[in-house]
Amino acid sequence: MTASRQRAVVVGAGRAGTAAVEQLRAAGFDGEVVVLHDETTPPYDRTACAKGVLSGKQRPADVALPMDPRLDVTWRLGRRAAALDPWAKVLTTDEGEELGYDGLVVATGAAPVVPPGWPVGQPGFHVLYTLADAWRLRGELRTASVVAVVGGGLTGCEVASFVCSSGRTCVLVDPSDRVLGRPLGPMAGALVTDELARQRVDLRLGRRVRRVEPVRRGWLLLLDDGTEVVADAVVATVGERPDTSWLDGVPGLDTSDGLLCDERLRVVGAPDVVAAGTVARWPNLQYSPRPVRLGQWITAWEHGRAAAATLLGGEPPGGAVTHVPRFWSEQFGLRIQVIGMLPSDGEVRVTYLRPGRRDVARGGVLISHYGSTGLEGVVAVNATRAFTSMARGLLATSGAAIHAVAEIQAPTHAPIHAGIQTPIEVPRLAAVG
Question: Could you tell me the residue range of the domain that residue 339 belongs to?
Fold first, then answer.
């Protein structure tokens, strides 16, 4: 058996999928690599949709993920996985093409979820997930005076920040009593909520949208307390669901919340299949044996590399893929940084960088979360230097790469070429070298 007659298939071309491709080649695999990408655009940084692309600081071409064309990858753009036979090792695409594989990386990410009947796609009513979504929304916001954002998570708040900074009225609706409570914890979420109120965001917290109706110019949202919101444009950021529908009905797979994996990202119930990124639910033994999903950019990047190493038979340090979650966001003049896990029943310690200021978040605050193992997570708002010091300590004790504290900047874009090759039936995947 020669390595050139082997095939690895990667489903998904986000950060997890592209990182897996890069690692396969870096580890010496010289067989065929086929990537299915369900969008017609080359792979891009999805996190830029609510940041640079929406604000106009970046154009679509600026956010393409850099991929060296010398990696020799067959890109199937605009193709989705439709079915899987893990025992025959055959994946079927949405066009009926059957791809045999020796190793499979599932990196399909997630898809936005909206209530049934919401008119997503009609003029003025948007979700924000893909690059096309962001570009379409940016065009419509040029003529909007009032924008309603439904959902107070990271994406919703970043959209609201742009809307306010461009001089438009923003109404933000969320069923919680504060924004960002889930990703930042209740205390940091409350401080950021106070800052949004100071910047005159029309906050409708503790409220749900019961009905959506078109009006002469825009949309009417009827809330559960009987009040109404009339907006020129609506952006729904109410959640996402792991993209595993194509795996429904496959015997032995647990897709109840993403794709269940073991501690090395091997999909339970499917030989020679690994998962990476938002779609993967695995026991992050850095914190707990309970399987979890994480949706951050850095998680996808590290997962993709680790999943590819597992597929090639590599052994991660300690025999398990462990990970320290971390992410950042800039909104309303606040630099928000998070690292680690935030235990709900642990001790919380707060450090105010400028005590006595009424605008606590803008003045700078560091919130440390302690659990059974000691310091487990840190949230910083406008406290970059203090955060960096604590983050380095957390990463050092976990064995993670210290350089990962810094924001990762993509290098210059390299062109990506799509192509189609004839399927080849081949044996088990292996590294060369």
Answer: 326-399
